[in-house]
Structure formats: structure tokens, C-alpha cells
Predict the structure.
Amino acid sequence: MRTGERKLWSNTSLPATACRLLLVRHATAEGNGRFKGHWDVSLSRAGRRELRLLCEKCSPYPVRAVYSSDLRRARQTADAVGRSFGLEVEGRPELREMDFGQWERLTWNQIARRSPKLAVLWIERFPRQAIPGAEPFGQFKKRVAAGIGKIVAANRGQCALIVTHAGVIRFTLGKVLGLPARNLFRLAQDSCAINVIDYREDGAVVRCING
């Protein structure tokens, strides 16, 4: 989406009962290309360089509250965005990425070599196929939905911004769009991607994906 197009509707007024929610994926983190999940890594040097452009991308929106996953890569991103709006960031552990158990810190190639059958089953049967030691998908869904719901309820009539993770964003978009879980990975989520959802009384509307 071009900046001019974003400005056309980013400042439009919202009904008193509606919430415009910006879901932002964190900047590039250390260990990129690995399953991170709850692995608490910091932003990489490249990720820190991305923050200024992200703040510029967010600037047209009338953000009144900033929330973040409590993992460092999200919190460091959110702190930069919060400063650009003059807002304090509120950390929320329920906005964490899914816990990938024994797969955390591994690349997909490493997983496929160590557990080739499980890797194939996980793709074919997602989200029913479990990863050893990982958070069940049903539990992940419940905590994320509850966390998003609380933020929406607390920000009726205004725009709020959340910095979180690809899995959280994909699940939230998929829920609004009615996508089956197996199709969630079809939703691209680049580092510093902006996604916009309007939560209204008559239902939620997705305005932007991976912007």
C-alpha cells in the first residue's frame, strides 16, 4: 500500500464502539531462519536499522495505545514505535509466539534431517500434529484470542497498535477471514509488516495485510 493511500483512511474517524487495531510484526531478530517461539532473542543489527522506517510507516495512524509481546524482539520494536508516538508500551505475555518445544532454535533443514517423518506429518496435519514439548495449538488460540479481545475492548473508539509475532498475527487474521488453520501459512508476514483490522459491532474488517 502506498503512503498516500494509507493516509486516505488511516485518520478516518471510528464509531465510538469500534477499534482500529494495528498488528505489527517485530523487526528482524537474531537467529533469523530458525524456529524462535519463546526463545528470547534480541533484534539483530539489521533489525535495529529497520526501526526508523517502521516508525515512519506507522506515523499516519492516530495511535493512542501501544502493546507488545513480552519477548525482547517484540518489546524492542514496540519501544521504538511507542517513543515515536510519545506512548508507554504495555507488555502482554499472552501475545507471545507459539512455543515450539524441541524445535526451537533449529532451522527447518535441521528438523527435517533429525525427524523427517514428523516434519512431513506436521505440514500435512497442521495443526493436529503435535511437536514434542510444544504448546498445543488449541491452547495457543485461546490465549491469543483472549489477549486480543481484552485490547479491543479497552480501545473502543480509537486506534491501538500491537507488536507481536508472525504466528499471532496469522491466527488473528485467519480468525477474522474464516481461514482454516492449514492455510494460515499462506499469509505472508515480513519483518515490520503492518496489518490493520477494524473491530466493529457488526463484525471485523481486514483493511491491510503485510503492509
